[in-house]
Specification:
The model has no long low-confidence stretch (mean pLDDT 93). This protein starts with 6 loop residues before the first strand and ends in a 7-residue tail after the last strand. The radius of gyration is 14 Å and the shape is elongated. With 93 residues, the protein is an all-beta fold. The strands form two sheets. The protein has a three-stranded antiparallel beta sheet with strand order 1-6-3, with no helix packed on it. It has a three-stranded antiparallel beta sheet with strand order 2-5-4, with no helix packed on it. A hairpin with a 2-residue loop joins strand 4 and strand 5. It has a single domain, classed as Immunoglobulin-like, CATH 2.60.40.
């Protein structure tokens, strides 16, 4: 599969309880990811209104962030995080 079709990985994550106006993050190793590439993420658990984002933050690394703006602490169960990185060239060339 070519790099232009994207690189997908999955990992298990069990974040600690996330207080109001707090964040939890995890770095996911994605071989071949480069700064400027597009990162997409999905969780296999109810996100309980948490805001989720992902970005390539270094070569081969995607940082996934859960941000709590909901007014009270949230505690997600252990779950699978799915990350896909697509090179910017697939969108912007």
């Amino acid at each position: 599969m070519s790099r232009l079709s994207g690189i997908s990985v999955s990992t298990t994550w069990d974040p600690a309880s996330i207080g109001d106006d707090a964040e939890a993050e995890v770095d996911v190793t994605v071989p071949g990811a480069k700064l400027g590439d597009m990162a997409f993420v999905s969780l296999e658990v109810d996100t309980q209104d948490l805001v989720i984002s992902a970005a390539v933050t270094a070569a081969n690394t995607v940082t996934v962030v859960l941000a709590n703006t909901g007014g009270s602490a949230r505690d997600l169960a252990s779950h699978t995080v799915n990350v896909k990185v697509v090179p910017k060239d697939a969108f912007f060339n």
